[in-house]
Amino acid sequence: MSESKDRQMPPTPRFKLGRAIALAGVWLVVGLAVGMLSLLAVMLLPQILPTLFPASEPTPELSLTEGNPDPGSRNLAQTRVVRSSSMQPETVQSIIATARDAWIEGNAEQFAELFTEDGEFVVPGQVWRGKSAIRDALADFARSGSEVDIAIQRIMVDGNQAVVEWHWRETNPQTGKQTTAEDAIVVDFRDGQISRWREYIDNKS
Questions:
Q1: Does residue 122 sit in the same domain as residue 175?
Q2: pTM of the model
Q3: Residue 36 is part of which domain span?
Q4: CB 82 within 8 Å of CB 190
Q5: Does 56 reside within a domain?
Q6: Does one domain contain both 112 and 181?
Q7: Which of 118, 114, 82, 77 lies closest to 95 in space, CA to CA?
């Protein structure tokens, strides 16, 4: 056999071109597949993540309106959890202004209607629970005939709680004697109503 037949023929340029086209086709298919998988992952990711990493429950709001009204004996075990949306400052200010007007006018019904059914009205040494008891408390005071003037100093609102400072002046119509006091009032709200009204009264300053 001749030497030319034993020697392997080198690949022709046409063969090299075909192989390059085939490789390019393979890479194109791979690229398209990767692109499609990436696009699918992006589309499904928002649905998959909540399943893999569930959102934690929001911290419940602890309402001081529930449980024992005596701060000295209050603890978290006695305090029930209340979930409610935050009050708007303008709404809180309006409720406080209505409460002030009710005291000035001796309107027991108006004052009591600001409270929840199980609301609490607390002043040093006394506690009234429920609308009926709160209504009776203001009605008893109104029967004394005392003239009341209240000047709101400031209202600070934080979510479903507010702190009020007001100046109280009470005049006895028979003797003309005046009694004044500086009140700090902590007010808790639930579902748009007062669930607890706690007064700290300073009549010595």
A1: yes
A2: 0.59
A3: 13-51
A4: yes
A5: no
A6: yes
A7: 114
